[in-house]
């Protein structure tokens, strides 16, 4: 009996110790500085020189694409140097006053063509990425949200898409459309990107499916559609957003490669860097500058997007956070 | 005695995997919760307490699990409801709060939207009404300056605040039953006490029944009316709180009590943990699962399986129950 009563005292004291620590939180609220995820990433990025270089290059490129019609001294389709090409044995006119980079093999102003070429390059890169992203978002969301047989089905489709070489696809599309055009290039590049986005998104969606906050949302009776759209998708977008900046760079390079092989837009009145590069092939030995300018531009722009994408990934990746 | 609000009967959850023996995570658990009552489910990791709560909420994945038995809630068997019917009930009639408050909140959605979401879901109200309700709820769970907190994100809140926000979400539609799965395990001690005090106030104020899942007997001592002790997926002892602490009858319960560090124990006196781990368990089917770790095990413990025998004490059914051949006699009670 003695033992019993000592036990009773013990529970009472345990119970009291739990109950008696009063709610004394009000005065000691911790203010965490009010920094959102994006603000935190931006604070880290602002001090990252790599990101700043990438951002500057990208911003300059976009700006150039927008204002190039006013910057370019000549219409890219006009042939102010055509008589020189015809009169001289030299088919590529060199630099001269009014034409700082000289002309191309058809007497057109090279500087104007390089400047205006940024527009096509930007359109191809961005549109191809957007199409690839949308396709990947749809497939990845379906696979990641439903799981099970929907996941298996979508992923097999994605595997099939992954196994198609981009170049072959571009050839086939050009053949299907009767002639290659800017759109066959864009679509060929976009289709190659879809499975990459889809897999990336599916992976992070599946991780979200089993996360505690999705379980908590289910425990509150939240509808499945809202769980996918509000709780799973936004939390899975980080890697996808980063990937899209990297894909813009890949798309630009791919588009250049396709144009170089003659699968780009055959209409060379609207210049595009890859297509200019392709046209310069037969003059490479005597006139390397014809290739130098468009190739240099492609490299710089792709570098800009890649540097930006890589540093974005580092900034948003919790594992590399300090 | 009033009618039970929740009545779990012979609940079994079996994990089935291809190429592996089926594993009985919960093996015939029965207990009652009456309106306004707080009932504890106690046991160490792996004893089936979280699986029991997920089964009640209908949150176990479909594949790889088979759930049988009855979970009667106000006269309806929750296990027989469709997914859609169950979704209607979750959040409105049954609420649940989880162990880790940070990972249980969506990091990219503001607190206000997350609380208002529940209100909007279960009561057809406009967004602004739901937001106002969310503000009132945050105020009620003791979050200072709730209007500002509504716009903030989970990572901007302290641990205790986050758990308060989760409690606000779980209680926003005034469910009649709240299941708290180790709600204080991830919090530090002072915050633990605050959260427990808050839970206690809220459930008594709104007459909500609470199922408290914990391994912490201090929490049990402070909160629960009735205690169910689980071991290896089965109930081994049930009693009213005072009787359980005063006279633990099952050697496992006794061992749990003996494992708590105490301020009044003599300096240098070693703690008295239960030897071994859950992995030493024997199958319940032909023996007592706890026998290998039990100080009072005898040959008959290995030869046949003890039944859950009701006895005269307290408990949810008006009586306690015990599953043991050789209960602890009062003289052997740990310390």
From TrEMBL, chain A:
It comes from the Bacteria. It holds the Pfam family BPD_transp_1. Coiled coil: none annotated. CDD domains: TM_PBP2. The chain crosses the membrane at residues 50-71, 122-146, 153-177, 183-201, 240-263, 290-312. The keyword Transmembrane helix applies. Keywords: Cell membrane, Membrane, Transmembrane, Transmembrane helix, Transport. InterPro entries: BP-dependent_transpt_permease (IPR050366), MetI-like (IPR000515), MetI-like_sf (IPR035906), OppC_N (IPR025966). Its main location: membrane. It is a multi-pass membrane protein. Residues 118-309 form the ABC transmembrane type-1 domain. It is found in: Cell membrane. Belongs to the binding-protein-dependent transport system permease family. This is ABC transporter permease. It comes from Nocardioides luteus. The lineage of its organism: Bacteria, Bacillati, Actinomycetota, Actinomycetes, Propionibacteriales.
From TrEMBL, chain B:
The keyword Cytoplasm does not apply. One of its GO terms (molecular function) is ATP binding. It is a peripheral membrane protein. Residues 8-257 form the ABC transporter domain. It is found in: Cell membrane. Pfam families: ABC_tran (PF00005), oligo_HPY (PF08352). InterPro entries: AAA+_ATPase, ABC_Ni/Peptide_Import, ABC_transporter-like_ATP-bd, ABC_transporter-like_CS, Oligopep_ABC_C, P-loop_NTPase. Gene3D superfamilies: P-loop containing nucleotide triphosphate hydrolases (3.40.50.300). Keywords: ATP-binding, Cell membrane, Membrane, Nucleotide-binding, Transport. Belongs to the ABC transporter superfamily. This is Dipeptide/oligopeptide/nickel ABC transporter ATP-binding protein. It comes from Nocardioides luteus.
């Amino acid at each position: 009996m003695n033992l019993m009563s000592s036990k009773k005292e013990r529970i009472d004291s345990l119970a009291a110790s739990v109950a008696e620590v009063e709610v004394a939180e009000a005065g000691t609220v911790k203010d965490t500085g009010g920094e959102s995820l994006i603000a935190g990433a931006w604070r880290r990025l602002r001090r990252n020189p790599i990101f700043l270089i990438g951002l500057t290059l990208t911003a300059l490129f976009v700006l150039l694409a927008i204002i190039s019609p006013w910057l370019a001294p000549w219409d890219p389709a006009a042939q102010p140097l055509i008589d020189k090409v015809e009169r001289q044995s030299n088919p590529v006119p060199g630099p001269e006053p009014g034409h700082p980079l000289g002309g191309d093999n058809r007497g057109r102003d090279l500087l104007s063509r390089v400047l205006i070429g940024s527009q096509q390059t930007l359109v191809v890169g961005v549109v191809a990425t957007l199409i690839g992203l949308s396709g990947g978002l749809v497939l990845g969301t379906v696979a990641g949200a439903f799981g099970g047989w929907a996941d298996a089905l979508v992923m097999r489709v994605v595997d099939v898409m992954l196994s198609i070489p981009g170049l072959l696809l571009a050839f086939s599309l050009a053949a299907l459309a009767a002639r290659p055009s800017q759109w066959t290039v864009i679509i060929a590049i976009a289709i190659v990107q879809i499975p990459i986005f889809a897999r990336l998104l599916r992976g992070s969606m599946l991780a979200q499916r089993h996360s505690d906050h999705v379980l908590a949302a289910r425990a509150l009776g939240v509808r499945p559609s809202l769980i996918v759209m509000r709780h799973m998708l936004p939390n899975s977008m980080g890697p996808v957003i980063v990937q899209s900046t990297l894909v813009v760079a890949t798309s630009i390079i791919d588009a250049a490669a396709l144009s170089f092989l003659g699968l780009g837009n055959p209409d060379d009145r609207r210049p595009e860097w890859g297509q200019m590069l392709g046209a310069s092939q037969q003059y490479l030995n005597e006139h390397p500058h014809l290739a130098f300018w468009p190739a240099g531009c492609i490299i710089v722009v792709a570098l800009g997007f890649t540097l930006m994408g890589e540093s974005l990934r580092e900034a948003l990746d919790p594992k590399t956070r300090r | 005695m009033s009618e039970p609000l929740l009545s779990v009967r012979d609940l079994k959850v079996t994990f089935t995997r291809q190429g592996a023996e089926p594993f009985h995570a919960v093996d015939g658990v029965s207990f009652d919760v009456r309106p306004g009552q707080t009932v504890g489910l106690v046991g160490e990791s792996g004893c089936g307490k979280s699986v029991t709560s997920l089964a009640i909420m209908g949150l176990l994945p479909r594949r790889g699990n088979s759930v049988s038995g009855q979970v009667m809630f106000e006269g309806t068997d929750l296990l027989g409801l469709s997914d859609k019917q169950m979704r209607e009930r979750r959040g409105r009639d049954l609420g649940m709060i989880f162990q880790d408050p940070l990972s249980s909140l969506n990091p990219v959605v503001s607190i206000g939207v997350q609380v208002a979401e529940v209100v909007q879901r279960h009561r057809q109200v406009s967004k602004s009404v739901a937001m106002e309700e969310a503000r009132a709820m945050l105020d009620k769970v003791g979050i200072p300056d709730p209007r500002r907190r509504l716009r903030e994100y989970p990572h901007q809140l302290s641990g205790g605040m986050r758990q308060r926000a989760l409690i606000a979400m779980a209680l926003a539609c005034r469910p009649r039953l709240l299941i708290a799965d180790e709600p204080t395990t991830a919090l530090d001690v002072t915050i633990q006490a605050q959260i427990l005090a808050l839970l206690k106030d809220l459930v008594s104020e709104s007459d909500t029944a609470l199922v408290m899942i914990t391994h912490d007997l201090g929490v049990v001592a402070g909160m629960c009316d009735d205690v169910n002790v689980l071991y290896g997926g089965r109930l081994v002892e049930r009693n009213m709180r005072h009787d359980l602490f005063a006279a633990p009858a099952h050697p496992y319960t006794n061992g749990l009590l003996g494992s708590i560090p105490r301020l009044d124990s003599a300096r240098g006196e070693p703690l008295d943990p239960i030897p071994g781990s859950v992995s030493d368990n024997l199958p319940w089917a032909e023996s007592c699962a706890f026998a290998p770790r039990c100080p009072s095990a005898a040959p008959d413990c290995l030869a046949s399986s003890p039944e859950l025998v009701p006895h005269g004490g307290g408990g949810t059914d008006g009586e306690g129950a015990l599953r043991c051949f050789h209960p602890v006699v009062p003289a052997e009670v740990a310390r």
